[in-house]
Amino acid sequence: SQTQKIPYQLIVGDKEMESKSVNVRRYGIKETHTESLEEFTANILADIARKSRLAKVE
Asked: Are 44 and 52 in contact (CB under 8 A)?
């Protein structure tokens, strides 16, 4: 995913399944962090909204 420049990597293991969370790594950043599934969903939807508004303005 790094060589293909995919913006997000999500790691979901047993621990994440139990806690309904995802481990997130953003493109270009080596560190990962854990977010609740609801928090990640809200963040990604906000990113999409920002990108689509920028595309319309430019």
From this structure: no
